Amino acid sequence: MRKLKIIEHISLDGVIQHSADDGDVPSGDWTAPYRTPAGRDAILAAHGGRFDLLLGRRTYDNWSGFWPKAPSGPMADGLNAATKYVATHRPESLEWGPFEALGPDIVEGIRRIKSQDGPDLILWGSSTLTSTLLEHGLADEVLLVVYPVVLGTGKRFFAEGTPARSFDLVSTKAMPSGIILSAYTVAGPLKSA
């Protein structure tokens, strides 16, 4: 059975939106000043040697305009080689492959993919799927790449209505740039005291 890991770049106040998502973000590309080779290597290590992607349609469209044209390197090569499992109502318009549409029932599509043999799945950048994954117990791990910034406004990682869950800390790594990588396993529903 494949594991599903959510990876997200996030501000201290929980914002994940940046200029690549929507050009109307006041702080633009707030992650850029903190990008370093060490940070890139830590993210690559978190992906593992081989992986497939679970993407919402908006993220797929944004990435398909960039990654196929990006210079060859570990990140570009890994993302381009990965099978992209896409939540979409328009599968006939997918071009960046290899790809497969999840089908009309996203939850059943993800369950089917997780039950198959293959590399682990990475959900990266498709925050609208996060609540669904947590609600249905489909996420196994979460890696938060926390930047030392407060943005004040923007789309939040855990949106209103995300089901209450508890997480077990697996590891934390502080980078010289101020970024903190915190890895968690999903423990399950939040238990009340």
Can you describe this structure?
It contains five helices and eight strands. With 193 residues, the protein is an alpha/beta fold. It has a single domain (4-188), classed as Dihydrofolate Reductase, subunit A (3-Layer(aba) Sandwich), CATH 3.40.430.
Q: What would you call the shape?
A: globular
CATH architecture: 3-Layer(aba) Sandwich
Count of individual beta strands: 8
Identify the strand order in the major beta sheet: 4-3-2-5-1-6-8-7
SSE order in H/E notation? EHEHHEEHEHEEE
Total separate domains? 1
Give the number of helices.
5
Characterize the main sheet: 8 strands, mixed
- Please report the distance between the alpha carbons of the first and last residues: 33 Å
What is the CATH homology-level superfamily? Answer: Dihydrofolate Reductase, subunit A
**What Rg is obtained from the alpha carbons, in whole angstroms?**
16 Å
Task: Indicate the topology.
Layout: E1 4-11, H1 37-47, E2 51-56, H2 57-64, H3 74-81, E3 84-87, E4 99-101, H4 106-115, E5 120-124, H5 130-135, E6 141-147, E7 165-174, E8 180-189
Parallel strand pairs: 1-5, 1-6, 2-3, 2-5, 3-4
Antiparallel strand pairs: 6-8, 7-8
